[in-house]
Amino acid sequence: MIQSKLKTIFLALGATLIAVSMIILPVETFEASKRGLNIWWGTVFPSLFPFFVISELLIGFGVVKFIGIILEPLMRPLFRVPGVGGFAWAMGMASGNPAGAKITARLREEKQISKIEAERLVSFTNYSSPLFIFVAVSVGFFHNKGLGILFAIAHYLGNILVGLIMRFYGYSKKEKLEVKNKKFRVWEAVRALHRTRIEDKRPIGKLLGDAVVSSIHTLLMIGGFIILFSVINRLLFHLQITALLASVIKEFFATLHFPKQLTIPFISGLFEITIGSDLVSRVKESTLLQQSILTSFILGFGGFSIQAQVASILAQTDIRFKPFFIARILHGLFAAIITLLIWGPIFGKHHETNKLPISLPVFLQDSHSFLDKLSQWGIEYGPIITICSLLLYIFIYSKRNVYRK
């Protein structure tokens, strides 16, 4: 009872402090809000919207059920989740945060996975997208294409290790018996696909409309969290709270022989990965290895902004947030350790410079060029995609309300 009251007082004081700070610092609040809106408007919405809609359609058409039965022999032994988890894993890796949580919650709503399986699955299906790692972080912040390979290996391998550890979460002997009796049949997967499509009696038009409405609902929520945490991060800096936290963390950094100048960028990264990664790359007093280790941790941890987005998505189901939060800490630690371990083989004696010791393969150079063009295309046409999608959402939503009345 006392703990609950203390939590209430703490939350009330925190909200009051933020409200007063916004009144005292209106210019800083406005600039932070505008920055968060620009990130959502031009990048997050156009990059995630197609994936969200397609995932909804694939679930409705029964394709996910088909994939689930096909991947059951792989996902069960490795991660102790159903085969449909492979769909969440792949889509989360391709589209970035928080797509894995969105798809996992949807699978749980469809009762295709149990509560424990959902908590395992969501712990290792949320990634930073390849576009963000290679273009925004490695090229945009560090101006080093080779670091994208380093960050990607550490990030994706670290999350796989998290999945292998979380397979023991909530494990029971009953699950082991179910795995032994599970057989792999292609025709069973085809029948399941057809059965799922027949049972979902919605016409294609209704299914598409539901996919658009559900996706935009989620993206509007994500946009709100991005703007909110952009403001909170800026206010904490101006209120010297970030500096206070940095004074504590710098003692830990001193034991690791990390310069104290990295503390404030690191704390910023704990709140928002884009801001944190950018600030870490600007610290001239640190080595590239130190910057890379902290950036890998920040990418793995995900930041409180993304975690709040995931928490909001999971709150609509019975999936608990605590396993996901613990998994993010593990992911950050694993990614940082992997970065340290593979630094020598990739960079060798050149780790103090911003150049790779060897030239990148042609196919990787081409992929970077493609990602650069894709990023520029997104910056130019992203807001247009957002406007058109919102207009479509308004049209579908208003039409349905008129129909209901």
From TrEMBL:
Under the heading InterPro entries, the entry gives:
Gate_dom, Spore_IM_YlbJ
Would the keyword Zinc-finger turn up in this protein's UniProt record? no
- The portions of this protein that span the membrane are 9-27, 47-71, 121-142, 148-170, 207-229, 293-314, 326-346, 381-398
User: Which ranges carry the Nucleoside transporter/FeoB GTPase Gate domain?
Assistant: 43-141, 219-315
Q: Which UniProt keyword terms apply here?
A: Membrane, Transmembrane, Transmembrane helix
The entry's protein name is Sporulation integral membrane protein YlbJ
State the organism named in the record: Heyndrickxia vini
